[in-house]
Each structure stands twice: as C-alpha cells, then as structure tokens.
UniProtKB/TrEMBL annotation:
Residues 173-278 form the Peptidase M20 dimerisation domain. PANTHER family: ACETYLORNITHINE DEACETYLASE, PEPTIDASE M20 DIMERISATION DOMAIN-CONTAINING PROTEIN. It comes from Loigolactobacillus binensis. This is Probable succinyl-diaminopimelate desuccinylase. Pathway: Amino-acid biosynthesis; L-lysine biosynthesis via DAP pathway; LL-2,6-diaminopimelate from (S)-tetrahydrodipicolinate (succinylase route): step 3/3.
Amino acid sequence: MDKRKALKILQDLLKIKSVNNHEAQVADYIKLLFDDYPAAQVTVVNYAPGRSNLVITIHGDQSGKTLGLAGHLDVVSPGDVSAWRHPPFAGEMDADNVYGRGASDMKGGLAALIYVLLDLLAEKRVFTGSIRLFATIGEETGNYGAAQLTRQGFADELDALIVGEPSQLQVEYTHRGVIDYELAAEGKAAHSANPEAGNNAIDQLFRFYTAITQLMASKTKIDPVLGSLLHNVTQIVGGEQINSIPARARLYGNIRTTPLYPNQPLMAEVTDLVAQLNQQPENNLTLTYHYPESPLPGNAQAPFVQLFRRVASHTLGQQVAVVGDSGATDASEFIRAAQKFPVVIFGPGNNSSHQVDEYVAIKDYLAAITIYQQVILQFLR
C-alpha cells in the first residue's frame, strides 16, 4: 500500500467544499484519478447543475459476480467555522488523524474505496466478475443520487454491496429507515379575545399530535437488533402574534422505522389518520412526506456478512462485531434494484461525524483499505 498516495486522496477530497451541493467538483476530481486507466469505465450521471453522480465499473478477467461499492460525495455544513481548531476544508493531518468536514462521514470511506480500485488497476490484480463504484450526490439530504442511479438500472446487476459509511470498523448488516413528514394546518385568524370567530390552526396540530402518539404507542414489536419504532415531533411553526388566533401552522415529524414496521404500510396508516381527522369540520390538514428511506433488512449469517467479519477480524487482530445501525444510508435506495443482494455497511469513522473538528484516525483509514481489498478479492475469486 502506498500510504502517502492513500492519504493524499483523502486530503484532496476534504479540501473540496461539497456542502449539500457542488458534488460535481468532487466527481471531477475522482474522474481525473481514473483517466490513466482505460480499463475503468467512468460514467457521469448528472442530477442538476453542479451536481453529478459518478459510476466507475471495472471488469475482471472473466465474467462472474458483480460487487458494488458505494460512497456519497456531499457533506453537511461545518457550522461556525471559527469554532474549529482545524479548518473544515483544509484536510489537515497530524500523526494520528486527518481532520475536516466529511473526514468521518464519509469521505474517509469513499477515499478508501477509491484507493482500492486504483490499486487494483495499477497492480493489475486478477479477479473474476466486476466491481462497480457508486459515488452519489445528496445522501445527507435525501439520498437523491442513489435513488437516481437505482431508477436508471445501475444497481440491477449487483450480487452484493459495500457501503463505506463510518461504522467504527464494525460490520453493519441492517439499519433503520426514515420517514420525514410535514403536516400543514389551515385555520382562520381572529382576535384572541374572540376565539370563536376563528379556527386555531395550532389546535388542529395538537389533535393530530395526540392521535399519532396513540398510533405509534400501539406499535409494540421490537426488532432484536434495531430496537423499537421511534417517532418524534421535531419542529412546530405557527402563529402571527400573541393576541391573534393563528390561521396557519406546520408540524414536522421524524419516524425511524425497522423491518418489523416497513415504511409503506406505516405511511398508509398515518395518511389514513389524517384523513380521519379531516372528517371533523374544524380540521383542515395536509400531509406531505419528504424523501422516505426504507429500513435495510439483513441476515447476520449471510455468507457475505460473515466473509466481511472474518476478514476484518483477521486484519484488526480482534473479533469484530456484527451489528445494526440506527441511521439510514444510500442502501435504502439501492435495495430497490431488480434483484435482492446482501449489504454490508463498513467504513472508517467515529462519533465526530457532523461535529466540530471532525476527523478520521489514520490507522482506521488504512485498515479499511486493507479490509476492502481483501473482501473484494475473496468475493470475486
């Protein structure tokens, strides 16, 4: 392994400000890395101006299985830059860590996957089948890129998928889904001294809140790995001033689903709940869903999961846990492809994701490269 080259790729990625957009700059940089290798089929899939996905396919010496690798190009905002000791877009490095927005989530994992592919090409390593890297836009705000690539059929040939999200070098095989929703209430303004002349939009939201709390409390099944269904109202906006009955109000909620409570049936129940409330003349509620992401089902004993566990345990010199993840990933979209396949979420990273002075440990980054390479070569023997 050329450690200097591997670290430079990571630092270069961190220097590109791809905060929730501008991913095309990252895609352009990655594309340049593969320009010297004609064997790499590079496809740019545009989403919007300044926003491009990248699909890189490498074929082995004969036909066989297809292994997918996935990482996203976008990062979240750094927030107050003055609070950072290490500038968020400088890619600074010390003896132990590389710092920057996205170092943990997930340019560390993406850079490791890129390096492995470049090394396979440079060293002309022999494998059967194909490797396909998906570098996606918009994961942090709705998995837009993964959804687009899946709709266009890029994931239809996959036999397995590695998602390089930060897993603290644990093998994750299942994760929660997400349902974000917005509920708008339309009422009628009036003076607060004469509330009967109006229709309080906030009161409508309270009726919904009571009803959906009861609905969610009835979902008592607990996933043995991911736990119970989670529901939180996270934002309420409404009213014009303190002495006026509000004519409009909005409520935002977040549901974290599990395979025991899949998204579509649950969304149907919430939609029906709003319809029932709207049968009352005082309610005028409109429900909107924002980019729901399905939970990732999985089997801890699947051969691909166990292959990953064995390779990671051997490389790290300790038993690696096989676990679930409370968050969601691009895998929620890729599993909508034509055929079913096992997914492993595995990558360097830690709890500094989305925080000030986000970092990735150099030793974890380099270990991930070794593990990715061994899993790829063993899976595609």
